[in-house]
Amino acid sequence: MRTEHEMFDLILKVAKEDERIRAVYMNGSRTNPNAPVDIFQDYDIVFVVKEIRSFIDDRNWIDIFGERLYMQCPDELDLILGHIDEIKNYYGWLIQLADGNRLDLHVQTIDVAKNDILNDKLCKILLDKDDILPFIPEATDQDYYVKKPSNEEFGCVCNEFWWCLNNVAKGLWREEVPYVQDMINYFVRPQLVKVLSWKIGIETNYSCSIGKSGKYMYRWLPKEIWELFLKTYSSGNVIEIWEAVLTMCNLFDVVAHEVSKKLFYNYYENEANESLKFLKHTRQLSKSAKEIY
Fold it and tell me: What pLDDT score does 46 carry?
């Protein structure tokens, strides 16, 4: 596996020797001082170019980065699927290299780059042949810090959590596991992650990022809370899902209470209690039942 030094040397060598490439910048975890360093970190590289067409038309130019195991061109997929009408200013190759490194490489026109680099605080300029890129401060993940919710946002998140459990309950009674897992992971769990993030925000004065999907929450949550959160993930077994869902409810209720008190926000306990009662009632409901109540 090539080292970081070797990869950067190659990336910059390619850029310096290609007249079409006028600048290079990097974003992603390698620019984030708070991201853990490990062997799976991608190289998120943007080549700032005069035009992108020649790079797309010559499919062999990326061979210089090494043998590929497999690759994705997301902009090409978007075009094929009709999500975009044309490719004009931006194109990317997501490359898993045979030596283990992953290179997420993009070409971007100069005008677009000048704007995009100012909108992402996790950017670092590696090369600028013509001084075309604007000055940017040192990379920081500040844009991703937990933000204090409003009273209204807090209420909406709580309502979404407790309401969507209705779908989880009926799905579990029917033993429709794929539907249940979607309801939990796409609608219910995100609300739990939000209240946990607000707990962290309160305790850190909103000065940290919990990472994508809350993957860094373990850094700030008490061990027992983090372990309870992990128990909200289950297998496809219906009995185990019921247990995980109830763990999720209890955890949400405790943390939402805490957040509401510290922020002096309203927490509608009756809504939570009735939702939980309905969930538990449905769990005990006979499969031959003709009525819910």
Answer: 98
